[in-house]
Amino acid sequence: MNKTKRRLQFTATAILMLSAGMAVAGDSQESADSKPVSVFDPSFPDVVFEQYVGQHIAPVVGDARFGIKRIDGYDDALDKFTEVSPIDIEIGFTLANMYLWRGQNLGSDTSFQPYVKASPDFEPFGDLWFTFWVDFTQNSRDKNEREQDYIVDYTFPFLDLMKCSGIVNDDTPSFVSGILDFDLTSGYAYYRFPADGTDTHEFFFKIAHNMILNPYIAIYHDFDQGGGTWIERGISHDFDFKLFTLSTFAILGYNHHQWAKTKSLTNLHFGGSIPIELGTHMIIEPFLSYSKRLGSTRDDFNERIVHDELYGGFNYSISF
Fold first, then answer.
1. In the predicted model, is pLDDT for residue 3 greater than 60?
2. CATH number of the domain encompassing residue 155
């Protein structure tokens, strides 16, 4: 399982959700102390969804749910390994109909993207991850193209840091704690392209707020061959349909000369996935999304490099 869950932000959608929900906040569902859930509470979408959808599905599906609760023997062995291992490991792959990267179709046929991630347990605060990722895509722009990514990133919860330092305590107003409840991520990525012997480097920074619709903003700056900056904002939310969970997202991307001679609001990428647990350590996750071109992003040959794309496939991961 990922120790740090990445979150997305698309401000316009969030505002629409808030304004639409104001009318039902008071009568949606009351907590144990009879106080209505605030429209700004992270659980507000869940409360509204449960009232209008979830409670009507529950009697039909009962306790049934997609997936396997536990695989005897297999999960037992991985549980024991996890207890003694000083490193958390995740291995997986994505199998998709193309290689879609920041709105660009970098491979028009089947794409196989395996990866391995590792995180030590001895970091003093937050989560440190090392990732090795590879792309094998048929019919790529360059024949036999293969990409290798080496990524290191560090994430820490800012609110916990404030609590440890004594700046935030039990007397701190809840709205102040809410404002400070976000995760900070910084990292470095090395991209290598064996087909033509080239490579490039990128630094990135991300702020993910733990609030309604989980907004985040991320900035990726390529200081080598890519020579530009990619900025994205988005939102995400999981909807409990009882039989399965639907994970949804929306990302708005802006390209400032990264692998392009232009700067423009690039694309709106939105979609969903259904994570299905196979025991306590494996997940298979079919997904489907759509990337809508917004501005005109062109390369040095004045050709458009971003188009409307339908993107689908599935993810598989095993963690221990």
1. no
2. 2.40.160.40
Measure the CA angle with vertex 308, ends 302 and 312; round to 5°.
130
The label of the residue with tokens 């199998």 reads 95
- CA 138, distance to chain mean position in Å, is 25
pLDDT in tens, 139-190: 555 555 589 999 999 999 988 888 888 888 878 887 788 888 899 999 999 9
Any idea what DSSP says for residue 214?
Answer: -
Angle at 93 between CA 197 and CA 122, to 5 degrees: 90
The pTM of the full predicted model, rounded to 2 decimals, is: 0.82
CA–CA distance, 34 with 49 (Å, rounded to integer)? 19
Residue 64 in domain: yes
Among 71, 84, 106, 91, which residue's Cα sits nearest to residue 191? Answer: 106
- 213: CB partners within 8 A, 6+ apart: 9, 13, 14, 17, 45, 235, 236, 237
Q: Spell out a b/e string for 299-313, using b for 16 or more CB atoms within 10 Å of the CB, else e.
A: eeeeeebbeebebeb
Determine phi and psi for 263, rounding to 5 degrees.
Answer: -130, 130
Kindly tell me if the per-residue pLDDT of 31 is higher than 70: no
Domain encompassing residue 140? 11-319
Asked whether residue 215 is assigned to any structural domain, the reply reads yes
Tally the domains of the chain.
1
**Residue 4 belongs to some domain of the structure:** no
Task: Tell whether 3 is covered by a domain.
Answer: no
8 Å CB contact between 202 and 222: yes
Span 22-26, mean pLDDT?
A: 41
